[in-house]
Amino acid sequence: MNVLVINAGSSSLKYQLMDPDTGAVSAKGLCERIGIDGRLTHKVPGRENVVADIAMPTHSEAIQSVLDILVDPANGVIRSTDEIDAVGHRVLHGGMAFTESCLIDDACIAAIEKCIPLGPLHNPANLMGIRACQAVMPNKPQVAVFDTAFHMTMPPKAYIYAIPYEYYEKDDVRRYGFHGTSHRYVSARALELMGRASNPEGTKIICCHLGNGSSLSACKDGKVVDTTMGLGPLAGVPMGTRCGDIDATILEYLMGRYGYDIKTMLNILNKKSGVLGISGVSSDFRDLDEAAAQGNERAQLALDKFIYEVKKDIGAYAAAMGGVDAIVFTAGVGENSMDLRAKLVEGLEYMGVKMDLEKNKTRGVEAEVQAADSKVKLFVIPTNEELMIAKDTAALAR
Ligand code: ADP
């Protein structure tokens, strides 16, 4: 079976053609600068990448260019689009409507549209990707997989905000959480590695998705009981350019002092904050490591702040669940930065967490890195959101 996995942003669109049963990716790539001019980068394992400037006034031309290159005699991997069995879409915000993935029909689209106020930056772009696929592949089953869905098992005390209850009742203001597909994949994989996939009851796992965007989840009995992101993906730990949790008073204070409107303020909090904001160097953790190694104190402070906040949340989730059996590190930073992983668990011996620093010298591959006498397992698990999307898509399409 071939599933085309689509992750549509406002001006970009990522795709992967994969077998949901084996996880084998036959081709993947990226359309960029949609609505500006248009560029396609197409990658097939074992072949040279193809980069082509193709006019992409809208997402429809972008999708069409993806289909064209997938069937291209020289650069393609299938003979005809008939070989694509179904299409899976990553959708950011499912609000309270979606606790799992859904086969896309008019009702599903209407429900995604209803979530636009909750995900104003992403949901419209995700819908453009869906509509473009429906236009060029009208007869293929399409499935929406939501970033929020896996977190919908949180209990009310975790998802309610301490503001007037009417905003929850009338306006759906609550914690939703994001990166849910990643948290679902790595927590399920951790359960497999623990030999608890078929009986997760009683397990307590903390998943740390640490990338450009970062979030933690507390998974008890295999289900999310808390997560760090909130109504939107700006909340939680500091990120590459996002501020994470801050005192809401800061908004009023800075808006008053500088005459910022809310759009300008949110742009600062989304795009100019996080480790970039503190360091003034970069949002990229490799750049920060390099700058800190050369004595840049603000780069070091940014790293220290990130580590401090993630570590605090690990402690908070152990407290919330009454213990922890395993901590999982995933995404760009979690999978690759051995130094940062080591610092995240430094001093947690009192919780029974002890890393084997030799085993931790691993990058981008699945590994178990706790010391022999650690009570808590430490896993590095490369995330694979696309595979989860492909599997959900296949299951619903079948
Ligand atoms: P996104 O949220 O965009 O999917 P990723 O999960 O790809 O992000 O993570 C990107 C981050 O991972 C970047 O900040 C990058 O610096 C970091 N990263 C990748 N490799 C390493 C490494 N070897 N050491 C430290 N950080 C790394």
TrEMBL record:
Site (Transition state stabilizer): H179, R242
Alphabetized Gene3D superfamilies for the sequence: 3.30.420.40
Top-level taxon in the UniProt lineage: Bacteria
Entry-linked PROSITE patterns: ACETATE_KINASE_1 (PS01075), ACETATE_KINASE_2 (PS01076)
Keyword vocabulary terms for this entry: ATP-binding, Cytoplasm, Kinase, Magnesium, Metal-binding, Nucleotide-binding, Transferase
Enzyme Commission no: 2.7.2.1
Gene Ontology MF: a single term: magnesium ion binding
SUPFAM superfamilies: Actin-like ATPase domain
A Pfam family of this chain: Acetate_kinase
Annotated Mg(2+) binding sites: N7, E385
GO biological process: acetate metabolic process; acetyl-CoA biosynthetic process
Needed cofactors: Mg(2+); Mn(2+)
Catalyses which reaction(s): acetate + ATP = acetyl phosphate + ADP
Cofactor remark from the record: Mg(2+). Can also accept Mn(2+).
Residues binding ATP, per UniProt: K14, H209, L210, G211, N212, G213, D284, F285, R286, G332, V333, G334, E335, N336
Catalytic-site annotation from UniProt: D147 (proton donor/acceptor)
Location of the protein in the cell: Cytoplasm
GO CC term, one of those recorded: cytoplasm
Binding site for substrate: R90
InterPro entries reported in the protein's UniProt record: Ac/propionate_kinase (IPR004372), Aliphatic_acid_kin_short-chain (IPR000890), Aliphatic_acid_kinase_CS (IPR023865), ATPase_NBD (IPR043129)
Listed pathway(s): Metabolic intermediate biosynthesis; acetyl-CoA biosynthesis; acetyl-CoA from acetate: step 1/2
Entry's family note: Belongs to the acetokinase family.
Function (record text): Catalyzes the formation of acetyl phosphate from acetate and ATP. Can also catalyze the reverse reaction.
UniProt xrefs under HAMAP family: Acetate_kinase
Summary of subunit composition and partner proteins: Homodimer.
Protein's name according to its UniProt entry: Acetate kinase
Organism encoding this protein: Candidatus Avoscillospira avicola
